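Fold it.
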Amino acid sequence: MKTYAFPGIIEDDILQIAAGQIPYMRTAWFSGVMKENERMLLDAIGCQGGRVMFFTSSGTAAMESVVQNYVAALGKAFIIDGGTFGHRWVQLCEYHGVEHESMQIPFGQDIDYDLLQERMVSYKPAVFLCQHHETSSGQLFDLKRISDICRKTGASLVVDVISSFLAEKLDMNELGIDVAVTSTQKGLNLPPGAALVFLSEKALSVDFRHSNYYLDYQDNLKNLERGQTPFSPATTIFMQINERMRRNLAIGIDNIVAATHAKALYFRELCARYGWEIPAQNPANAVTGFFVHRNGDILCDELQKHGIFIMPSGKPHFFRVSHMGSDTFQDLDELAALISEIENRPL
């Protein structure tokens, strides 16, 4: 099987880490694994002086933890409502009764940053919530410009980097990001099941709200001191994180980002060759979203007959190909040729 859906193609030896017997986690050995994970992750995202909390959950649970513990403690929020996951920040604030205002971003478009600054100056939020990469279209937002606006207006910057961590250049300290959220099934190129919340040194000084037993920050940070989580972790996924991050740091984060960027550019050249439209104004490295001309209703099923997965969407004839994982330019050539052959079959 070849998959160009998140998390992408995973090396067999990393998959095998989860195939054996599961070691007991309440040991000094596992605490050492978790402490090493935290050190490597903080280094990779430029969060010196911060902490990483580990949740056995999807990324949405980590996002919810931010709203409950952090946003609710600081006050009202301003949200970039772009795509499914940008809208999820809105839904979470609505669900938990957090005062907020949002700015909706049309599919595939970038933010009007001048308008954003005007609205931020007017609304005066305590917290700004956004995604780095809007995965439903493939649009990448400009975190440098967002960071500048947050610094001018005094808003705490919280970013969903689930599909940009290890795919884009990202330095929390440099960008003034107070909280970042990611999960295992995208940039880390691992199975789903674990999510991470990065807290900057500044964010650690907040008096967190206590409104969720499982996701409580004070409890999780206390357990982190001993290299543990309060509740049973996804042990083998955290072991896979350890192996992945050891490899990543040996390769170099900049080299990983560059390799992902190169695959993205190569596939976009193939899209141009086959005449497939890419709607994102500023496409991200992690994924390319594109429209085919015909047979979009059968494309995914036909690809699966060949053992290949790509990502569909709610828009007719629109698909996404992930550039995470261990695929090659030759793999992308073969994928594009097969998509074109299916697209041009008689109706």
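Residues 162 and 182 are 4 Å apart (CA to CA).
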